[in-house]
Please model this.
Amino acid sequence: MWFLNKICTSKVRLEGKTVVITGANSGIGKETARDLYARDSLDLCSLKSVRDCAKNLLTNEAAIHILINNAGIAAYPSYEKTQDGNEITLQVNHLGHFLLTLLLLPKMQKSSPNCRIVNVSSLAHFMTDIDFDDINLERSYGPIRSYAQSKLANILFTKELARKLKEADIHGINTYSLHPGMIPTRLFRYGDRALFPGFTFCCNMFTHLFYKNAEQGAQTTIYCSVDEKIANETGLYYSNCGVTTPYRKANKHQYPKKLWNVSCLLLHLDPEKDFTTILETVSRQMN
Model:
């Protein structure tokens, strides 16, 4: 419903700011990039590509002020692992962004204050739980479940990263997660194969009264990236250009830390190490 769609009204300018956006070639990522005048190239199916991209950014950019983890896939038709051994949706939607964020954090720390990390999640996070003993879904894969789990992971990562930054006494970098709205983008391009023929058509018909176009869908991402009123907020979840409460699983007290630990192990990092040591270790892995 177009009259329920809020827009980011902030007039803040980004001269002299460097913005990194994953998945800016289409959909809301493209619209966000159009608004912020930024672009990127990154294959999250490969952790080597993530490290190469980060190395290029760290070498060629004097500063990084805003990181928008936007890229994603949904309803992947069959169970598949990346060359790194992770379920593909988990890696593209969460683990690749987890790694990229850790790699860019030292540069962002030097670029602070007023740096932001924005993770594009989804309302779909309410649809599932996380099985921390089978996070790659080897025993229980489903196209929708894998997507919903990865979107729940985005929210939990945002919360735990905010806590880790505070614990390490790192200031000037805030974290945000968000639901952009129902948007008929290429995100569900595998739906016809994964669910049933005509899924994409039915989805577009069903959401006709409620969906946002890509420009409208980018507004909450832009809001979290630039709005001055939320400059001192961190670790929260947003929808329709305002803070809101995520669903029950995202509020489980122990979940953010458990996800952090599992994600570290998948990246061959020791979750028991302090945050600064983890950042140093992941940086060495890049070389």
